[in-house]
Each structure stands twice: as C-alpha cells, then as structure tokens.
C-alpha cells in the first residue's frame, strides 16, 4: 500500500530521536499544598509563643500568672470556637482571602503586643486578634485544600499537612526561646508578626481557591471539576448539626473527654511546661526544646492510633490513652529538675506518642454516631477541646500564683484523665458503624 504525500506524517509529527524528552510539570496542586504547609508551620509557631511569655511578662509588668493565663485562654477558646465556621468562611469568600486576612490579623495582634501597657491590651491583642486569626486557619484550612485540590493521594497530603503543626513546633519553639532568653520577649513577638506577614505574598500569589480557577482538574481526577458557587448555608448547617447532636448522650461524652484532652495538652503542657521547668532551675531553651520534641513523636503516635482504631474498639482505645496520660502526669512533678535526665526524656517520648492519639478514635466515634454530619460534629467536639485548653491555661496560672508551685495542677490533670477514661468507656458504639479514620492536627 502506497501513501500519498498528504497522508505522510509531517516533520512536526515525527519525533526527533535527538530531541530531549519533554519534562512534565508538577501539578499545581502540589504548590498549593506547599504553601498550605508553610502557612500551617507558621500557625504552629504563633501558638508556641505564649508559653514562653509567661515569665518575661510577669517579671516586667508584675502581672499575675493567672492574668497572663487568661489572655492565653481567650486565644485558645476563640481558636476553637472559630474553627467550626472557618470552612463556611472559605466557602463564602474563598480560601486565599480568608487565609491572607487571617495572617494579617495575627501579625497585627503580635506586633501590637510590643506597645502594650496593660493586661487588657494583652487580652485584646494576643487573646482576641491572634485567637481569631489562628482559628480561621485551623483544621478547616487543610481539609478544604485537600478536598478541593486532590482526588488522589488525599491520605498522603493529609498526613503531610498534619505534620506541619509538629514541624512548626519543632522549628519555632527552640528558636523563639533563644530570642526571648537573649534579647527579650518583644523581638520574639516581632518575629512572629514578620513570619505571618512573610507568608501573605506567597498565599496571594500561589494559593488558589479551586483547580478550576487555573483551568485544571484536581490532582488524580479523570475529569474537570467545575468550581462550585459560593455556599451561603454552611454556617447554618454547622449550627443545625450542633443542635441535633446536643440532644444525644454520646456528643456530651465525646465533648467532655476531648475537653479534658485539650486541658491536659494545649492548655497545660503547651502553656505551662516551660515555666514549670524553669521553676526547677531548667533553662528556658532546654525546656522549650523538650516541648518541641513532643511535636516529633505525636506524628508517630497519631499514625499508630489510626491503625489501632481500624482494628480495635475506639472507646476502649480512648480509655487506655487517657489512663496512660493521667499516670504520666502524676509522675511529672517527680521528674522536673534543673537538668535534662533520662527519666524526663522517657516522659517526653511517652507523652508525645499520646499527645494527639485521641483524635482518630474520637473522629471515628463521631462518624459512627452522626453519619454525614460526623465531620461537622467533630468540629464542635474540637471546639470543646479548645475550651478545655482555655480553662486550664487560666486556672493553671491561678494555681501557680496561689500555691507557689505547679504540682497541684499536674495531680489534678492526672485525675481529670482518669475521669475521661471512665467517660470513654460509657460511650456506646453503634454496631455496623463506619470506622473511617482521617489524620488531623
């Protein structure tokens, strides 16, 4: 068979064996994930500073630790209460706008603390402004980015973005502790403000609300997905889910146990461990480094907990986690000293593995009991987590002022964990419930 000239392939169609192979550009979703990762690292840094400010602010302004703890508690409470509505804000106004505004608000709050003269200003600047800004970039940010930009590798991306919190804690805590110890707390606050502002251009230039904005399908998707219109009813759905769940017993048991989880992690250890260790003569940089190490081991603990949750009773796992956490906190007063020694390192590793191990079984129970609204209900349970953290951040400072030591706080926290273990065992599990686990920070 003879081909006519018109049927012969053109030179443009014939591959040139000498030409270099064409390199495929990475999907835009990965640059969006990278910006999200950097932003979440910064958010972890913003959350790391309050525990380092208690002693310097007490020394300079003679404010009680309870007063300083109250500002931290406002920050933690607003972080939790803003989180359930953060997804609604992003659906309504877009991810890029919400995150850029949130970072600017955080920078303003952290920067203004350098000029404060009263404890009320500390509550306004660090408590309200930084709390609202951080809450707007809570779990909803990572979940929204993953859900919109990735149809494949969602588990991998979720794990990476979850690790951002631990990475930020590992990076910022030792660095900020050195700045506070050598130069004072104001340069540390300025560092946080500048870090927040530095991320804003990256967010504005590289982050997009949806793959359709740049004419792409989500990573791993076979077909193009149109951008959905702005959602105006997401906030109402969040409130409806809360009202519906509040009429059931499991919700209050889950919220109660998770409030104790927040109280014994973010509220107590993250806020008061450094000043408590400093009371025993440990340098601030050493104590902050120990706290940063917790952030490394909480990744392994959460991954293992997710594996266990797929295979064992979620409520029994929670009982074990809270029971072991309570025992470790009971022993902590005996371990605090002016130097880092092997038993303290063992506590840090053990406690780090247990830090957020409660998340997968708690989320699994929310999904079992509340079905399609399980993720929203978990958002409200997370709000209880932050409210518990806020209360202990405040009450822990008051107790230190009243007793001259943190020891009663550690023992009380251990008792609370025992109560949480009993509450977890009371939660009934629905037969045939879906045991789907997602990693969250």
From TrEMBL:
UniProt keyword Transmembrane helix present: yes
PROSITE patterns linked: MFS
Keywords on record: Membrane, Transmembrane, Transmembrane helix
Annotated Pfam families: MFS_1
Record-level Gene Ontology MF annotations: transmembrane transporter activity
Species the sequence originates in: Streptomyces lydicus
Annotated region (Disordered), positions in chain: 1-25
rRNA processing as UniProt keyword: no
Highest taxon of the lineage: Bacteria
SUPFAM superfamilies hit by this protein: MFS general substrate transporter
Membrane-protein topology: Multi-pass membrane protein
TM ranges: 32-54, 66-86, 98-118, 124-143, 155-176, 188-207, 241-265, 285-307, 319-337, 343-365, 377-397, 409-427
Coiled coil segments of this chain: none
Alphabetical list of InterPro entries matching this protein: MFS (IPR011701), MFS_dom (IPR020846), MFS_trans_sf (IPR036259), Proton-linked_MCT (IPR050327)
Compartment(s): Cell membrane
Location (main, coarse): membrane
Protein name in the entry: MFS transporter
GO cellular component, one term: plasma membrane
Residues covered by the Major facilitator superfamily (MFS) profile domain: 31-432
